[in-house]
Amino acid sequence: MASHRRPKQPSRARVTVLTTAAAAAVAISAQAANAAPSEKPSKDEVKAKVDKLYEEAEQATEKYNGAKEKQEKLQKEISTIQDNVARGQEDLNELRDSMGLAAAAQYRTGSIDSSVQLFLSSDPDDYLDKASTMDQLSAQQVESLKKVQEKQRELAQQRAEASEKLKDLASTRTELGKKKKQVQGKLAEAQKLLNSLTAAEKAALAAEESRASRSAADRVDLGNTGAASGRAMAAFQAAQSVIGSPYVYGASGPSSFDCSGLTSWAFAQAGVSIPRTSQAQATAGTQIYSQSQLKVGDLVIFYGDQHHVGFYAGNGQVLHAPRTGTVVRYESINNMPFQFGVRI
Length: 344
Fold this sequence. Notes:
Layout: H1 12-34, H2 43-98, H3 104-109, H4 114-120, H5 124-128, H6 131-134, H7 139-195, H8 199-219, H9 222-225, H10 230-240, H11 259-269, H12 278-281, E1 286-288, E2 299-302, E3 308-314, E4 317-320, E5 329-332, E6 338-343
Helix pairs in contact: 2-7, 10-11
């Protein structure tokens, strides 16, 4: 006879858990269905974020420029020291030759007399300390030996200096690589935001910038302000000659520029050497804190950390290389936080 058992009923606790889980799932689904889709940032919001990223990229660019300038300076200094060491070694060899290197073979066999050993010694100080050896030398020989000692010390000092500068150069190259990555990271982030815009939005932004640039150019009035100096005017005219050239971080002409690259290049065309970075250019001349006293060709420094520089163009306008994605152009001085002018 078959056994009929009553089916096992689920426990009250298990029923409660299942019911709660089902309810939660339903609630989550309902929230997901009713949630408003995330809003795409507007063109102006994207522009504001991109401008901020470009500003941060320019800050990093000036630090990159500083590290690059230091690297180039160190390379020149090391090259000069190495040339001096090479020439000094030649002089030392000639001195030693004049003191009896023809007896080198005899010296190596140990048969040379003590006075010639002194001439050939790599450590003449040791011999000079010995009065008995000194007695064997003429005044001329002693003078020659002292010249050898002096040249050896000079070469040792130069080699030590070169070694320290090589360490500094290695550190500077590492710093340069870090700054370059920072700039590239900011630019990539900005480009990603720009890529999120539609073609129509990108065109609208470009049109806005073009109108602003044309308006600034129309307001430039060189006559009323006057030039800071003949050299400053020549530098300003050199900058005018490259209006429309693209901004490229780290570039200093002749076909592309960053902000301090433009100003340093332009002054170089006028026969004036100024530092490479905006921060260094800020201290390269007389500082002028009133905009009303600025003259055409004065440098204009912007932002609290002085990371941007351009030329004063008269009538409240500046000529500069603004940022990535733009070209050398005129712009209102009021578009950026003015710090002071610099008259070179």
